[in-house]
């Protein structure tokens, strides 16, 4: 089969397509014929060797999010049959390939009305957004959530979860297309985070009360400002950061706020099952509707890694074998 392989850590050029043997499923394993694979920012950190959570053994195939059809199942595997449509919440062999080997607990049924590219945009964005909003921030119906970088995969997922559970949403984006997209996704207030003074406009939108929850995709740029627009007992969940930041601790003290960091790979099994159940229910009732901004062939994996780190993201980037 064709697969993207990384033999050394480095820039996107280390992503090389190769012919390797197709894996064979063992007990409680499933082989998925990949129709689409999602590209996430963490893939780029891992590829560069600068991702503390996971340092893969070289060589490896990147990717955790995929969607396709069950090709074969291993012994004692009865949950799925060949031909079943599925999406993955992780893989054993990597998603940037024509086939992905998965544990049975990493494979989930995919409804007919959800396309493969959409399904490849599910796991990391929707699980991260759900975990940040509800398992960390404990967001409650009627509260106001600010989603920085709302036009990206995690941001759009957060808007959809917030809408489903009765939260008021404020989103930021860095382009007119991004602002239009988050407005279409029902963000109640939309602000360009490249505009001077947009933080004051956010405060005005809350009548000076501040926001209850902030999902922060670029903490090294925004965190110090975030603390000044929080409501009393507000919460910031850091989802992404690309450097250090200096804050004023008194901003934490006067508002009695919390700043938390989330990393999806550390989710305990019981909380992961809660997330999977929410995603599955959202697919069925239409709450969960992934937005794919760009499809690229598998051979352009390097380009996908360059694009996913550019500002102005619009939905998810997906590779198609």
Account of the protein in words:
This protein has 321 residues and is an alpha/beta fold. The chain has 2 domains: 2-122 and 290-320, Medium-chain alcohol dehydrogenases, catalytic domain (Quinone Oxidoreductase, Chain A, domain 1); 124-265, NAD(P)-binding Rossmann-like Domain (Rossmann fold, 3-Layer(aba) Sandwich), CATH 3.40.50.720. 30% of the residues lie in helices and 26% in strands. It has 10 helices and 15 strands. The protein has helices at residues 41-48, 116-119, 123-136, 153-164, 176-184, 198-205, 219-226, 249-255, 269-285, 301-308, and strands spanning 2-6, 15-19, 29-39, 66-73, 85-88, 99-103, 107-109, 144-147, 168-173, 189-192, 211-216, 230-238, 258-261, 292-297, 316-320. Strands 3, 4, 5, 6, 7, 14 and 15 form a 7-stranded mixed sheet that branches. A 6-stranded parallel sheet has the order 10-9-8-11-12-13, sandwiched between helices. Strands 1-2 form a two-stranded antiparallel ribbon. Helix 5 links the parallel strand 9 and strand 10 (189-192). The chain is globular. The N and C termini lie close together (10 Å).
List the helices and strands and how they pair.
Elements: E1 2-6, E2 15-19, E3 29-39, H1 41-48, E4 66-73, E5 85-88, E6 99-103, E7 107-109, H2 116-119, H3 123-136, E8 144-147, H4 153-164, E9 168-173, H5 176-184, E10 189-192, H6 198-205, E11 211-216, H7 219-226, E12 230-238, H8 249-255, E13 258-261, H9 269-285, E14 292-297, H10 301-308, E15 316-320
Outline:
This protein is of the alpha/beta class.
């Amino acid at each position: 089969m064709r697969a993207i392989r990384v033999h050394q850590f480095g820039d996107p050029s280390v992503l090389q397509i190769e012919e390797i043997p197709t894996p064979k499923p063992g007990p409680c394993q499933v082989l998925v014929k990949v129709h689409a694979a999602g590209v996430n920012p963490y893939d780029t950190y891992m590829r560069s060797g600068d991702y503390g959570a996971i340092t893969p053994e070289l060589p490896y195939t990147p990717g955790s999010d995929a969607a396709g059809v069950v090709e074969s199942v291993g012994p004692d595997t009865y949950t799925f049959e060949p031909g079943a449509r599925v999406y993955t919440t992780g893989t054993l062999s990597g998603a940037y390939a024509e086939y992905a080997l998965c544990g049975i607990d990493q494979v989930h049924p995919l409804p007919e009305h959800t396309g493969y590219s959409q399904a490849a945009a599910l796991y990391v964005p929707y699980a991260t957004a759900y975990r940040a909003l509800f398992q960390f921030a404990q967001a409650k119906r009627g509260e106001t959530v600010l989603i920085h970088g709302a036009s990206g995969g995690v941001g759009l997922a957060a808007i959809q979860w917030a809408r489903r559970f009765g939260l008021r949403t404020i989103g930021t984006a860095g382009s007119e297309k991004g602002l239009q997209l988050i407005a279409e996704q029902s963000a109640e207030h939309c602000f360009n985070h490249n505009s001077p003074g947009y933080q004051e406009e956010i405060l005005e939108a809350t009548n000076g009360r501040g926001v209850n929850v902030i999902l922060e995709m670029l903490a090294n740029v925004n965190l110090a400002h975030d603390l000044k627009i929080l409501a009393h007992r507000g919460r910031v969940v850091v989802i992404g950061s690309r450097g250090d930041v200096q804050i004023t601790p008194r901003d934490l003290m006067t508002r009695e706020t919390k700043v938390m960091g989330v990393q999806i790979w550390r989710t305990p099994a019981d909380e992961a099952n809660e997330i999977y159940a929410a995603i599955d229910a959202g697919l069925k009732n239409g709450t969960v509707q992934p937005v794919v901004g760009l499809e690229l062939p598998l051979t352009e994996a390097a380009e996908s890694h360059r694009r996913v780190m550019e500002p102005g993201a619009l939905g998810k980037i997906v590779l198609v074998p």
